[in-house]
Amino acid sequence: MGSIEAIIGWGQYWNIIESNHPLFSITGTFTNPGPYGAFLGIALLIQIHFAWHKYIAKQYMSLFMLLIVGLLTGSMFIASFSRAAWVALLIAVSFFFFLFQKKRYRYAGLLLLILFLFSSPFLYQLKKQSADGRLFIWRVCTELIQSKPYTGGGASSFAARYMYAQAD
User: Fold this and answer.
1) What is the spatial distance between Cα 86 and Cα 92, in angstroms, rounded to a whole number?
2) Residue 103: partners with Cβ closer than 8 Å, 6 or more residues away
3) What's the average pLDDT block by block, 10 residues per block, for the chain (168 residues)?
């Protein structure tokens, strides 16, 4: 399924297939590049897993086909230009290492966490305006919640006060 999504994404990249969103050129069958890229990242991990098993079994023709599909999927993963996709891939890889925690993988999770911390500035700069907008929304929401953290302001009060808090 990931390879089909990658082919659709490449069709959108080359303007053969129309995107599902007016602002984003690559969305696959999704309406946003974030979930699309995350899907491709998970599909890429699965393809790598199958390729590894084909390599162990010495089934080189199947391995070659999986490598071609993995190259297609991986390159579209990068072309999706999605910060959410990179975070999803990092979480999935971390889960893989913790799930199969053997002695040789023991420090891989820590290494991935350090890699994530060092790559955070890059992920922030990937779409700086979007990240700034999200941080602003989180700050406004936090301020609203802090005004009445335990009792709240009543039904639908958050939606009613949010725009005024954002303007302030």
Assistant:
1) 10
2) none
3) 89 92 88 88 88 92 93 88 79 72 65 77 76 84 83 77 82
- Running DSSP on this structure, what letter comes out for residue 16? S
- 9 contacts: CB under 8 Å, gap ≥ 6: 26, 27, 28, 36, 40, 76, 79, 80
Domain-by-domain residue ranges, the chain? 2-126, 127-168
Of the candidates 135, 115, 113, 138, the residue with the CA atom closest to the CA atom of residue 124? 135
Alpha helix locations (H) across the chain?
2-13, 33-56, 60-79, 83-99, 108-126, 128-147, 157-167
With 0-12 / 13-18 / 19 or more C-beta atoms within 10 angstroms meaning exposed / middle / buried, residue 121 is: exposed
CB 109 within 8 A of CB 98: yes
Tokens of 107: 């420090």
Both structure tokens of 49: 């897993």
